[in-house]
Amino acid sequence: MRKEHDIPIIDGHNSFFKELLPNGGELVVLNAYFDESGTHDEANILVVAGYLFDSQQAYRFDRDWSKFLKKEGVPFAHMTDLANGNGHYKDVSDTQRVVHGRTLIENIKKRSRVGFAVAVDKKHYDERIDVAGLPTAATFCSLVCMEMVGEWLGSKGHSKQVAYVFEAGGPSQSEFSHVMDLICAGPHKESRYAYGSHAFAPKTSASPLQAADMLAWQLHHFHERCARGHKEPRKDYVALVRPEIDQLEVFVEERLDLIKGAAKRLGVI
Fold first, then answer.
1. Which residue, 32, 61, 19, 34, is CA-closest to 164?
2. H/E element holding 102?
3. What is the DSSP letter of 35?
């Protein structure tokens, strides 16, 4: 049975999480929020990233971050606009945009349990992997993120199911939605992915996606800078990323060759 919801609303007083995980009871809900950065055609690096929250901390993040945005007169945070002073941030001073970024980082580090991210060079991926029978780069990265969530929970001795929430409207949503249908029907959804349910939502409806957007943007920007020879990360990147906690993966050419070789041995390609 497919467990998908289109427009989740993070609210401590509604039944959204109960709908995603109908068995309820003693089940503790963890929520992973993912976003894509670098999916436009000219980008080289693609990043899928997100955070794992327990249900109470997801609610508190939403409460505190939404309250701050309302006070500031900004409907939602989009990291590209926040960093460059565009969109809702076009009339916000540089100093105040720094305050917004710092406040978001503080909320992320206070409320999230762990961050997950997968980065890949799209050109290298397309040359080696993007063939019939294997997913596109964005779907591949999303699946690896989900496996990382399952592995991390397993390493901590947790058997909790996760309600996955992905940003709606991305270029890979149709393909990824089909893949999620296959996962729902498969035998490994709980053991491999700790899967409980999933949904697609805009940043405006599920504010923790704005946290995922920041992580995805920061990692994408960092890897693009490294590719141009700049080795020093932004100060807000250093402030955001927790090396001892967050799980960050980069698929370089050699790892992609290993994946392609395994796919050939299995007869997938």
1. 32
2. helix 94-111
3. E
Question: How do residues 205-264 score in pLDDT, each as one tens digit?
Answer: 788 889 999 999 999 889 888 888 888 899 999 999 999 999 998 887 777 877 777 666
- One-letter amino acid at 7 equals I
User: Which residue's structure tokens are 């926040």?
Assistant: 82
Helix (H), strand (E) at residue 36: strand 30-37
Q: Which of 81, 115, 80 is nearest to 218 (CA)?
A: 80
- Looking at per-residue pLDDT, the higher value among 117 and 17 belongs to 117
Supply the Cα-derived Rg of the chain in whole angstroms.
18
CA distance 147 to 167: 18
CA distance 194 to 149: 7
Q: Are 158 and 114 in contact (CB under 8 A)?
A: no
Residue 15 pLDDT > 60, yes or no?
A: no
Which of the 8 DSSP states describes residue 85?
T
